[in-house]
Amino acid sequence: MNKDTHPFKAFLYGMAFGSLLMFILLLPGQLKASDANNDIYCMAQNIYFEAGNQPLAGKVAVAHVVLNRTKHMNYPADICGVIYQAKLKQNWKGNMVPILYQCQFSWFCDGKSDDPEDSPTWLKSLNIARDVIQGAYPDITEGSTHYHNDMVYPYWADSLNETVYINNHTFYK
Predict the structure, then answer these.
(1) Contact, 171 vs 150, CB < 8 A?
(2) Backbone angles phi, psi at 87, to 5 degrees
(3) Taking the C-alpha atoms of 149, 155, 156 and 158 in order, what is their torsion angle to the nearest 10 degrees?
(4) Which of 37, 44, 94, 109 has the fewest Cβ atoms within 10 Å of its own Cβ atom?
């Protein structure tokens, strides 16, 4: 083998690898592990932050409230729209941001990070979100569109019908 051709081969292999890498990086979002606008991702966030410490029934119930809202005329028709529904204001950078405590789900506008930190809980939330969206679990909330934790009693609770109590959440429609 000629010593002069070896660096050239390495260069060609490097170019081929670089081209392949660029091709992979430029593919549409189907290769991403999650997409922030994806229904499963949005639902998993809501399960994680609203019921991450709950058993399966609590997680499934919270997910069904979101699905029930998508069918109700007072809410957006899509999962992410329901979860991220909030009163917004313009911040100092000119971006529209949720107003503190003016959201449908408190975690979205509590001023804290919305990035999951507990990997096992996040993975469970992703799996449950997928399963609920695909119809693997029946609606154990009996069509509920609202719920609250025992630690609070919201102003709207007396105007709705209580359907079920799961763990430390009361559900209403």
Answers:
(1) no
(2) -80, 135
(3) 90
(4) 94
Angle (CA) 60 146 66, round 5°: 50
Angstrom distance (rounded) from CA 149 to CA 152: 6
Report field, pTM of the whole predicted structure over 0.90: no
* The pair of three-digit structure tokens given for residue 48, joined into one six-digit string: 């994680």
The two structure tokens encoding residue 121: 């809980």
Q: How many CB atoms lie within 10 A of CB 153?
A: 11
- Domains parsed from the chain with CATH numbers: 39-143 (1.10.10.2520)
Per-residue pLDDT of the chain (173 residues; tens, 9 = 90+): 555 556 666 666 666 665 554 544 454 444 344 454 599 999 999 999 999 999 999 999 999 999 999 999 999 999 999 999 999 899 899 988 888 888 898 888 878 888 888 899 999 999 999 999 999 999 999 999 999 999 999 999 999 999 999 999 999 99
Contact 29, 52 (CB under 8 A): no
For the record, the structure tokens of 161 come out as: 């019908």
- Contacts of residue 62, Cβ cutoff 8 Å, sequence gap at least 6: 46, 47, 50, 51, 54, 147, 169
- For residue 48, what is the DSSP state? H
